[in-house]
Design brief:
Blueprint: H1 2-8, H2 90-97, H3 105-110, H4 112-129, H5 153-164, H6 186-196, H7 206-209, E1 214-215, E2 221-225, E3 230-236, E4 239-243, E5 256-257, E6 267-270
Antiparallel strand pairs: 1-6, 2-3, 2-6, 3-4, 4-5
Amino acid sequence: MVLAVVLALTLGGAHHAAAHPGRTAGTAGSAQTTARTESGRAGSAGAGTPAKTLPAGEVASTKPVAEVRDPEEAKSFPVTSVHHSAAARPSRVAEEFVAPGAQSNAEVRAELGHMHALERTARSQATATAATVPGGDSVGGDGQIPIPAGIPEVVQRVIAGANAITDFPYVYGGGHASFVDDAYDCSGSVSYALAAGGLLSAPETSGSLESWGAPGPGQWITIYANAGHVYMYVNVGGRWMRFDTVGRSGPYASRWQPEIRSNAGFVARHWPGL
């Protein structure tokens, strides 16, 4: 029920362009997509693949779209031999790792003064943990980022989902046959995080995510997608953090990165109210 309230409400009305990275991002061109022909990973997601059934209350998947090979794949430290345990289901990760006592959207709006104080604290925490490691822009430590208590619960769950797979290796098609996998490509990674927040019911390709949610940047979560690549920004207590397979410091380094990249050639999408 809390999730339904979160998705139904809008936070703060009109968005402020100056507060969001890449507000002037260009739109993706009409690149022709081709069916994915990944070898060695059975059941890759393509056009016509039935949506998987997740727990009641989660949001239905958008229309499947075939995906072209990621043009930025070489920058994502792709591996051929995976040495990583499989992930848990996104919904389970969200339940296990979301901050205790998470506020609903209504509670956040009713306690703006308290929220702002929490945001200031979270901002300082994010700054302290956003030091990158050599070789790229990945955050250090265990590769995860703190989950502030003063942000909408659905956003907390998305962060929890992203944290759960942040150090998994990149394999093309990873995370598409099932959310439960031992490696994830760009769209598999973003799909997993969104599913943890109940914003997606089945893994989607980058091309499919071009029509996810509503057009334009969000106040809390924005994905940038084109036919071959997708990444996500999350507002973590006033600081935007990027969740991306490109720009990491190594094959098992974090997908979380504090640096803003060019959004030219990508379509910005957000979930209504977020």
